[in-house]
Amino acid sequence: MNSLFSDVSFLTLAVLGILAFIAGFIDSVVGGGGLIQLPVLLIGFPNTPVPTLFGTNKISALAGTSMAVVQYSRHIRYNFKLLLTVAFFAFVASFAGAKTVSIINPAVLKPAILVILVLIGIYTFLKKDLGTVQSKSLSENKKLLFGSLLGLIVGFYDGFFGLGTGSFMVLGFVVLLRFEFVAASAYSKIINCATNVSALFVFIRQGNYLFGNCHYNGNRKYCRQYHWQPDGH
Question: Counting beta carbons within 10 angstroms of the beta carbon of residue 132, is it exposed (0 to 12), middle (13 to 18) or buried (19 or more)?
């Protein structure tokens, strides 16, 4: 365990832990915890490949979102046909988005991330209080259609960037599916878990996550750059 953190200072770990707590709290309420978590990782590990930081952020996001799912599930009755349909399309799209990250030049990704952060910041500032009252309900077929489109678009975005995905998903449920805010948050958390798992499947297989100093575990080599690589790399 000591070797795992020997290249990371106590102050860095403390700051990462505190900000992860704040990001998790915000994500559980309105979504968008990645707007805090990912920039912190980019600043704290400037020499680490961007896909590796994306993968690390997904691990943290999945942990927080899973706990939010447990809490919401105690108070919300789900339309499982709608939920599973949206989750399926989001899962597939997130896989494709995560694959796309690995084939793009990291030098292009960092400026793009900055632009997206600014745009999402503007969106967050301008967004009004949507979802306080449920609008007139849609037919089941329209819910499935709009939900599938929402899953594809936001799912791909989550696998590719992931910044503010929770907020976008909640907004989509409110605007497109006419959910009230609490129900939209509950649905979005479960779907966000699906997209995180899908993206993590890609990132972990590629070795894109922070870990610790180099050591071997089976056919994997854990490196000082904080992510594992297959033997021979």
Answer: exposed
